[in-house]
Design goal:
There is one protein chain. With about 550 residues, the chain is α/β, with parallel strands linked by helices. The protein folds into two domains: about 375 residues, Glycoside hydrolase, family 3, N-terminal domain (TIM Barrel), CATH 3.20.20.300; about 120 residues, Rossmann fold, CATH 3.40.50.1700. Helix content is about 45%, strand content about 10%. The protein is built from 21 helices and 16 strands. The strands form three sheets. An eight-stranded parallel sheet has the order 9-8-7-6-3-2-1-10. It has a six-stranded mixed sheet with strand order 11-16-15-14-12-13, sandwiched between helices. Helix 20 links the parallel strand 14 and strand 15. Helix 2 crosses helix 15, helix 7 packs antiparallel against helix 17 and helix 17 crosses helix 21. It is globular and about 80 Å long.
């Protein structure tokens, strides 16, 4: 006979069982004279503090560093850092990802070495897979329409599913941490470093869409990182080459730049990336946010209430080293300011000053040591909660399944539909249209994919690259479909002014370029060079659907 057990009693029995299991483990560990490792059934905070108390200074420092490497296979040096130094985190950059299977094999190798270390702590494996043109893991992964296209549709569901399908592909490869979403605002239209990586100009909109991207990624098991705090959007400078100086006051910062970060903190984003960005009107000096306790401790931790991980942008960027003077000093300043993981695109040698100087500082400066230990504790708790949680990415990817999972088989139809929803008609709402009555058609683009998709849609059309010879033949056609995507293509387009009544311009990236050709009468924006975006563009031109996208930028004519 089956006996019904009331719910409170079930909970009590379950809780008692867990307590007994923990007690059994502790007594068994004590009997065998061992301490718990990462996978033992001990509460996260307790286990993290136990592991931290037994770590050497070298193990502590290594746990808060994140390195990348050049080449298809992990370098012997990065393997040694994981195996001999217990490096805690790995970054997959775009220069070693054309072979998707090799990426997964590299992660398997690195995680295997990490598992053999003293505490068996898995690696956080990160990359930048924002969607759109920032797609560090290439090879078989999807080329998606990107954030500005999501901003054009304005639908949180588009952001949710973008995060979901992007993350499902990352999860198949063993990547568990994505440096996305970018919630910088597209405030400075001259910016080329942010541009279409942004959801648009509206702070609340960026916050809503960013939070939806985070939720979709979480559903797929991948951790996310809001960037670039406190906001990279109001500058045309690129922190890779120089430290941008953003001259806004604190009121503007709170009412504009910080709004999307606040929304993501409220939504529980697990990590935030600090940017190499200077705000002299707020700090009174040129210190970048990466090294600024006010931005990280006072503002992000205390005022915004963020309790997750703070991760630096790449410390090899000039925006960091120009201020600090050396990479070694960058690491010290970043830790002092409150960053929990220090990211470097290169792997330093074992005797590099980055390692020696930071370790020596730990040994002689108790306050600095406490900063390191606080970061180690945060990283350990985050790893325990994630890897022992309900939906983590598998530590060892299933290599045999990658061909079936990447690209995601369900993602294609979504990304195509998302691209359709993003198509925006510009220039007084005049819809571009090509049919049998349009006469001869010329398709011109710098992108071979655009030409291929255009020819598939309009088999009788001629195709031509965007170059200075285009003007000599364009006049022979009744309709010219021109792909505007760069300063060079803009210069070529300007020479077709006399053919403006025959032109249909497809803005493939930032629609800002259209502001330089106000005489163009017929134009649509698709916001990326994804094949899905190009297919949507030609579908709109052929009249398959009525475009409903809304321009996510102001003052673009």
């Amino acid at each position: 006979m089956r006996i019904a057990v009331k719910e409170p009693l079930k909970i009590a029995i379950l809780s008692t069982g867990i307590i007994l299991l923990v007690m059994l483990f502790v007594s068994t560990a004590a009997a065998r004279g061992t301490e718990p490792d990462f996978w033992d059934p001990v509460p996260d905070q307790e286990l993290a503090r136990n592991i931290l108390s037994r770590m050497t200074d070298e193990e502590k420092l290594a746990q808060i560093l994140m390195f990348g490497w050049a080449g298809l296979d992990p370098s012997p040096l990065v393997l040694d850092w994981v195996e001999e130094r217990s490096l805690g985190n790995i970054k997959i950059f775009g220069w070693n990802t054309d072979d998707t299977f090799k990426v997964a094999k590299a992660i398997t190798l690195l995680q295997g070495k990490a598992a053999k270390n003293r505490f068996g702590i898995p690696l956080f494996v990160a990359t930048d897979q924002e969607g759109g043109w920032i797609r560090h893991v290439k090879g078989r992964t999807s080329q998606t329409p990107g954030n500005l296209a999501i901003g054009a549709s304005g639908l949180p569901s588009d952001a949710w599913y973008s995060g979901y399908y992007i993350s499902r592909e990352l999860a198949a490869l063993g990547i568990n941490l994505n440096f996305a979403p970018t919630v910088d605002l597209y405030t400075d239209h001259a910016s080329t470093v942010i541009g279409t990586r942004s959801f648009g100009e509206d702070p609340e909109g960026a916050g809503i869409l960013g939070a939806s991207f985070v939720a979709g990624s979480t559903a797929a098991g991948v951790l996310t990182t809001a960037k670039h705090y406190p906001g990279h959007g109001d500058t045309g400078m690129d922190s890779h080459g120089h430290m941008p100086v953003i001259r806004i006051d604190e009121k503007t910062l709170f009412e504009r730049e910080l709004v999307p970060f606040r929304r993501l903190v409220e939504a529980g984003v697990p990590a935030i990336m600090s940017g190499h960005l200077s705000f002299p009107e707020i700090t009174g000096n040129r210190i970048p946010a990466t090294f600024c306790p006010y931005f990280l401790d006072d503002l992000l931790r205390k005022q915004l209430g963020f309790d997750g991980l703070i991760i630096t942008d790449d410390i090899m960027m000039n925006g960091a080293t120009d201020y600090a003077g050396s990479v070694s000093r960058v690491v010290e300043l970043a830790i002092e300011a409150g960053n929990n993981i220090v990211e470097s695109s290169t792997t330093p040698s074992f005797s590099d000053p980055l390692w020696r100087n930071t370790l020596n500082r730990m040994k002689r400066d108790e306050q600095f040591r406490a900063r390191v230990e606080d970061s180690v504790l945060r990283v350990l708790v985050a790893k325990l909660a994630y890897f022992k949680g309900t939906n983590p990415v598998g530590i060892y990817p299933e290599i045999a399944d990658i061909a079936d999972r990447v690209p995601d088989p369900d993602g294609a139809s979504f990304f195509q539909s998302q691209a359709v929803r993003s198509v925006t008609v510009l220039r007084n709402g005049k819809e571009p249209h090509v049919d049998a009555k349009s006469g001869s058609v010329l398709i011109a683009s710098q992108f071979a994919t655009f030409l291929d998709i255009g020819r598939q849609r309009f088999p009788d059309a001629s195709i031509f690259g965007v170059n200075d010879r285009l003007g000599s033949i364009a006049g022979n056609y009744d309709t010219i479909i021109f792909c505007l995507s760069s300063d060079y293509s803009l210069s070529v387009l300007k020479k077709l002014h006399h053919l403006r009544d025959r032109l249909i311009v497809v803005s493939a990236m930032s629609p800002v370029l259209l502001g330089d050709v106000p005489w163009v009468e017929s134009a649509i924006a698709v916001y990326s060079y994804s094949p899905w975006s190009f297919t949507a563009a030609f579908g709109a031109i052929a009249g398959d659907f009525v475009p409903t996208g809304t321009l996510p930028l102001k003052d673009i004519q």
